[in-house]
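#onboarding

Welcome to the new folks! Below is a worked example of what a typical request in this channel looks like: someone posts a single protein sequence, and someone else replies with the predicted structure as tokens. Don't worry about understanding the tokens yet, we'll cover that in week two.

Example request:
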Amino acid sequence: MNTFRTAPWSLVVPLKPLLLAKSRLTPSSGDALRPGLALAFALDTVGAALACPVVRDVVVVTDDGPAGTALAALGARITADIPAAGLNAALAYGADTVRAARPDAAVAALNADLPALRPAELRQVLEYAATFPRAFLADAAGMGTTLLCASPGVELAPAFGGASRARHAASGAREILLAGVDSVRQDVDTGDDLRAAVELGVGVRTARLSGVVVGAPPLV
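Example response:
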């Protein structure tokens, strides 16, 4: 095993404009609620990430002004999606933005739709990832990726979207096979995903809205 040891991580979180985000939730949530859910997911994800003791900072790449304002209030740094060329270009740009200021940064791309994220579980994953040049965590469905990490001096090389687990493995990144980190795996694209996240225990912002989708009274 390699023994890369990293300083605290900088996380890059991509977020679509809220009106376009989480379209697969529409059958469960309706169009009126969907943008609010997407923002709640992002806020709970970023809030948990910032509470993780091995996370130095979080950079959110988004062109959504209100979402950027809300996330900045949590302590995230907001940057516009300058490439405007899709998810992976946005993530690569975010990583480059971090390393323009700190060339020796350890950088990780994290999904914005992990509303059950627990800081302690994220810490486990990042500490494991620090022992490899690049490492990734598959999503709960086993097809996609929720986290991709690159140690200092190593290009992030994101390949998110669809069957990204196989692409990240083929690129040479080490798959993180840890038990007990379900909150870092459980992204939310559908109503069933949201039900699974609620069972794990979502953050307060998502909990306020999720009852409409999962069939339980929302928090007030």
